[in-house]
Known about the structure:
Elements: E1 5-6, H1 21-24, E2 37-38, H2 40-46, E3 48-53, E4 58-63, E5 72-77, E6 80-84, H3 92-100, E7 106-108, H4 118-125, E8 129-132, E9 146-149, E10 153-157, E11 160-164, E12 173-177, E13 183-187, E14 191-192, E15 199-200, E16 202-204, E17 209-210, H5 213-224, E18 230-233, E19 239-240, H6 244-258
Parallel strand pairs: 6-7, 7-8, 8-9, 13-18
Antiparallel strand pairs: 1-2, 3-4, 4-5, 5-6, 10-11, 11-12, 12-13, 14-15, 16-17, 18-19
Helix pairs in contact: 5-6
Amino acid sequence: xxxxxxxxxxxxxxxxxxxxxxxxxxxxxxxREGQQxxxxxxxxxxxxxxxxxEGGVLGIGCEPKFAIGQRALxxxxxxxxxLWDCTAYLDDEIVSAINxxxxxxxxxxxxxxxxxxxxxxxxxFDVPIxxxxxxxxxxxxxxxxxRFWNGTTHEIIPGLALIxxxxxxxxxxxxxxxxxxxxxxxGDIVQVIPDxxxxxxxxxxxxxxxxxxxxxxxxxxxxxxxxFDSLHGAWWDTVIxxxxxxxxxxxxxxxxxxxxxx
Length: 262
């Protein structure tokens, strides 16, 4: 069965439909020409896999870029590898490359804009998907592979934990690795900006809606408790190699100086 994929956000749905709830939400958009659809076979015919180092972590994406254009990251540990975030594009080259590195023990995704073809990935590697319960309503293709979790912290394996910051989406989550000097994987829950000396916090990036100050304040407090030196964002080359903890805290303080509660 050919399952539809939204060409604007990349979400794969369980059956044909006219609308895409993700795109109709105020954090995304529907193109002027209307909703457009594709599928995984069409993507494979039009694109190729891209796998390259992203600050010591394997980045996984495609060319030309598709939909939002994020890339996934293979976070490797001594106990196995976790796919952080997801891209709609998946082919045999990607599956083989990951399997040659030991395969996966799980998939974790920051927020609904990156759910995409997560079920295809879960079935290709026979692993669970860890999603925050607060974003359950946005799942486009329900499946037993999805494991919803609640609360603020969820440890996938020792030293690798998900933290719900609530930025961008109620279930907006980052991944923290305690290995070495510590690393934070954020998608665009914490957004790496061009100068790399600050990060950003937004409710909607394309529609330029700022995140609520109370949410950013809570996120900064949660992140201040963690040890991390590097930070990996959502797109190619969005890596802060060192000093990330201080950058996040300085950025949150700056944000709160400019934004006030009603």
